Amino acid sequence: MNVEDAKSLMYEWVESPSLRKHCESVAASMNYMALKNGEDAEMWTVVGLLHDFDYERYPTLEDHPFRGSEHLKSIGVDEKIIRAIMGHGNHTGVMRESLMEKTIFAVDELSGFVGACVLVRPDKDINNLEAPSVKKKLKDKAFARQVSREDITQGALELGVELDVLTGDVIEAQKKGI
Length: 178
Known about the structure:
Layout: H1 3-13, H2 17-36, H3 41-50, H4 66-74, H5 79-87, H6 99-119, H7 131-139, H8 149-159, H9 163-176
Helix pairs in contact: 1-3, 2-3, 2-6, 2-9, 3-5, 4-5, 5-6, 6-8, 6-9, 7-9
């Protein structure tokens, strides 16, 4: 599956503008990280676009991302993509092994958190956001309560990357987009 096909599928399944933006934000982070690590940017971007594509239809932990992964399997999507999507949640039982699997887990919550940080800036400009500002907001438990700080920290640990570095990478990815 290529990026255009993945984007079409995501837009077919996702109606919410905020969830679409989240999927595109995570895709931008995945693309950036793939290029930084000399990996397959197309495949990684597809993972980012599709990691939550089934969430509106199947929002429970019993169904997401299992149902979407079943659909992807039925249309012949590469098993590496499906495995990474399954691994982006701790509740699936999939142990993250590949760099792509670890990266989708690491950038999912952090991409959303960076987006929330941009929204509360007076200028709403990602170009003026820096990692220390994000780090400060991470300490504020009342800010973006739905974002798992534990997953953000665990993701950086699994990647073996300092959280400040990962945050800087996600900010740069958001500046570039997909």
